[in-house]
Every structure is written in structure tokens, then in C-alpha cells.
User: Fold this.
Amino acid sequence: MREALFTTRITEMLGIRHPILCGGLGPAIADADYVAAVVNAGGMGFIVAAGFPDPDAFREQLTRCRLLTGGKGFGVNLYISRQAGGAQRLERHLQILIEAGVKCVETAGASPEPVLPMLRDAGVKVLHKVPAVRYAHTAARLGVDGVIVVGNDCGGHPGIYGISSMVQAAQATAELSLPIVIAGGIGTGRQLAASLAMGADAILMGSRMLVAKELAIHDAYKKQVVRGDGTESIVVKTGLKDHHRVLVNDSAKAVAALDASGSSEFEQYRAHVMGALATQAYRSGDSRQGMLDYGPAVVFADAIKPVESIFDEMIDDARNALTRLGQLTRQLKNDHD
Ligand SMILES: Cc1cc2nc3c(=O)[nH]c(=O)nc-3n(C[C@H](O)[C@H](O)[C@H](O)COP(=O)(O)O)c2cc1C
Assistant:
């Protein structure tokens, strides 16, 4: 494992070696084994609570992660549904993660307001994930510990505004004073260095990690991701105003056709967007059906390898970026002298 190269508010807050976070990967693919690999490689990972709706199964995942990380802190991803009672349905999982001593939570979806008091009382750090800086201001006012700002390049939910990560990184760091994590399209150390140079405290990745050896998805799918050049994603469900960047497959094409038809009736979409199709695709490696979150950062996923190797490469690449900047600024200085 590489030595720490950067110290930021996020590395200090979470007690991690590198300012690298790996976002929740649902349905249940970000499990204890993957998250432990991320934590043991010096980053922070999040077990997806929604992937383990049965409380006992969720508790088992947390126990296993604690064991695999030797007691180091790890995180949980909490999706807060916008539907009525969405936050209340999380109560059991909240109790379990607090009892298990989970260090931090990545919240996503609706406002984290209803879950904040319980988490704050228990000393759990809350990083709220938003697809646009305007929502980050609201989260900051609510008192979250940090925000994860996800740009349009991201696999998963880029929001309705479609603003790039490059714009949002510069905007967020200028407008907000709390710790900021930049995500969407990131998979290299030079992007990490650039994000930190722009004022961010860490980056977060999803698509780049689809080839992690420890991730519980079929090797055939990981190999497909390795072959991908980043042009195979499409944003669908625009008709439902629930923009979703996924792999172009039969389901995505059917949903894109519904979007184009102007349909906003969920019942028409249901058969194509059922979570069970995605679960089946990840298990079998047959990716023709299901909404498979997928972003252009797969272009950086060049081989199936352990999380630690991916992180080592990122840190080496970040160091090279710093050297390059050092050379450029020396050049500038020489020109001035
Ligand atoms: C396969 C996959 C599954 C994901 N599942 C979830 C999820 O269940 N909950 C969530 O908040 N984000 C989810 N995301 C989004 C990631 O946590 C992260 O925000 C996003 O991948 C960052 O953009 P990137 O893909 O360009 O790195 C998923 C992303 C991928 C690629």
C-alpha cells in the first residue's frame, strides 16, 4: 500500500490514508467484502443498506466488515426514498448501524433531515450525496458533515440538470465551506489531484470500481467493463424525471423509447426497471436486461484487479500529476527570473 500523499479535512474526519471514497453500489454488490477491501486499501467504502432489507442479513454484513477490517471504521449507504414514509422505513437499519459502531453514512435520494438527529447523537458522520450544487447548500444548512457532489458523468443518478463534474467541482468549492467530495467520471489519480487542486477534500468513485476483484459480480460482466471505452452509457428515465445513467442494453433501449414517447406513467416502465433484473445480470454476467448503473469512467478500468492495486495506481498517477505541475510552475518561475 502506498504512503499517504495527501491530508485533507476528509482524510482527517474519517481517519483514512487516501482521500478516496468508493460510493455505494447497489443492489447488494457493495457488500462487506468489497467495502472491507476499500477500507483496508486506505479509502472509505459504504455497504448499501437497501441491498440487505432483512435486518439480520444487514447486521451480518456489518459484523463481517468489522471482522475483515480489524475494527477500522467503515461506512453504510442509506438511500432515502422520496415516497411518503421513506425515512421511517430506515429506522431499523439506522438502529443496527449505530449499534454496530458504523463510522459514517453516505446518504442519497431525498433530504437527510429526518435521519440526521439519530446519526448525529450517535456520532456518525454524514456525507450527503447530491447531483447539483444547489442541493448541497440545503444539506449544508441542515448540518451534514460533508457533501458529495456528483456530476453528469456519473454512473447512476446524475439529476435533472446534467451539469459536468468539472463545473460542479469548481462551483462547489467556491460556494461551500464544509468538506466537499467530487464524483462523476473519476477513475485516475490525475483527476484526484485536479479535484484537490480545485479545493475539494476527496473524490468518490463507482464505475471505475466495477472491475475490483473483491466485488461480487460475475467475471463476464467485469470483462465486459474492461472492454468498454466509456461510450456505452445512456441517460434514461427522463420521462419520469428520475434521470439514470446506465449501460445501453435491451432494457435501457426500451426505457429510452418510453422516454421518447413522452410517457410519464411508471407502470409502463416497471417491467424494464425492476431491481431484480439488475441483480440477475450481475449474478449471471448476462447484461442484456436490467438498469445497470454505468458511467464513462469505465474507460479507466483496464483490468480486473484488487482494490489496493487500483488505489496504488491512482496515488502514483496523482504524484505524477503533482510532478508535472511542479515542472510547469518551475518553468514559469524561470521565465520570470
Ligand atoms: C453499479 C453501480 C451501482 C450503484 N448503486 C448505487 C446505490 O445503490 N446507491 C447510491 O447512492 N449510489 C449508487 N451508485 C452511484 C455511486 O455510488 C457513485 O455515486 C457514482 O458511481 C459516481 O460516479 P462514477 O460512476 O462516474 O464514478 C451506483 C453506481 C454504480 C456504477
Q: What stands out?
A: The first helix runs from residue 9 to 14.
